[in-house]
Amino acid sequence: MIGKLSGRVDYRGVDHVMIDVGGVGYIVYCSDRTLAALPPAGQAVALYTDLLVREDLLQLFGFTTLVEKEWHRLLMSVQGVGAKASMAILSALGADGVGRAIALGDMNSVKAAKGIGPKTAQRVVNELKDKAPGVMAMGGTLQAAKGVAIAEVIETPATAAPPTNAAAEAEALSALGNLGYAPGEAAGAVAEAARDDPGADVGGLIKAALKLLAPKG
């Protein structure tokens, strides 16, 4: 299994990039967002990868973070979602956006991805909602361990992607879990709080999430 490639960008296509690793060119398929974050031809690049093996096909898919790779793996586990559909969802929403949409049960956001119908979008939300808290927490762990620095290293100022608040969301999610809230409801509340205030810190997310989780009436 090829889990990571480090080399230089040879060229970028519409949906893929060729990475030269010691004179061997690897074609790696990526989401639109990942492609946009890659440096120009000739510059150093590193991507986490997932190898799709079929009887008549071998395809590598590339990701700037392990969180994006994990969402690809989970999306592919849903009936009716193949590699192309997974890339479309990640292109439309990004890794953090996928997490928020699923945690919130927002099938309309998933359905906005190219080629994704309402039934497939509903299956994605229903089947992965319980997985969202774990992936959100994984994002925070990787931030703290500098695990997402791979994207920061390979990007130039002109192509750098906007920063995310994954670490704060993960800490808030952990805090709500310690308070006794179920993972699913905690993830939904944190995702909604982060959507309403993308720049909120951990304390702000916890406070907003607790208001959302408070009994109504």
UniProtKB/TrEMBL annotation:
Cellular compartment(s): Cytoplasm
Primary location: cytoplasm
Helix-hairpin-helix DNA-binding motif class domain sequence ranges: 73-92, 108-127
Region (Domain I): 1-64
Record keywords: Cytoplasm, DNA damage, DNA recombination, DNA repair, DNA-binding
InterPro entries referenced in this protein's UniProt entry, alphabetically: DNA_helicase_Holl-junc_RuvA_I (IPR013849), Hlx-hairpin-Hlx_DNA-bd_motif (IPR003583), NA-bd_OB-fold (IPR012340), RuvA (IPR000085), RuvA_2-like (IPR010994), RuvA_C (IPR011114), RuvA_C_sf (IPR036267)
Pfam families: HHH_5, RuvA_C, RuvA_N
Residue segments, region Domain III: 166-217
Subunit structure: Homotetramer. Forms an RuvA(8)-RuvB(12)-Holliday junction (HJ) complex. HJ DNA is sandwiched between 2 RuvA tetramers; dsDNA enters through RuvA and exits via RuvB. An RuvB hexamer assembles on each DNA strand where it exits the tetramer. Each RuvB hexamer is contacted by two RuvA subunits (via domain III) on 2 adjacent RuvB subunits; this complex drives branch migration. In the full resolvosome a probable DNA-RuvA(4)-RuvB(12)-RuvC(2) complex forms which resolves the HJ.
Similarity comment: Belongs to the RuvA family.
Domain notes: Has three domains with a flexible linker between the domains II and III and assumes an 'L' shape. Domain III is highly mobile and contacts RuvB.
Function: The RuvA-RuvB-RuvC complex processes Holliday junction (HJ) DNA during genetic recombination and DNA repair, while the RuvA-RuvB complex plays an important role in the rescue of blocked DNA replication forks via replication fork reversal (RFR). RuvA specifically binds to HJ cruciform DNA, conferring on it an open structure. The RuvB hexamer acts as an ATP-dependent pump, pulling dsDNA into and through the RuvAB complex. HJ branch migration allows RuvC to scan DNA until it finds its consensus sequence, where it cleaves and resolves the cruciform DNA.
Protein name as annotated: Holliday junction branch migration complex subunit RuvA
Organism of this sequence: Parasulfitobacter algicola
Lineage of source species: Bacteria, Pseudomonadati, Pseudomonadota, Alphaproteobacteria, Rhodobacterales
Gene coding for it: ruvA
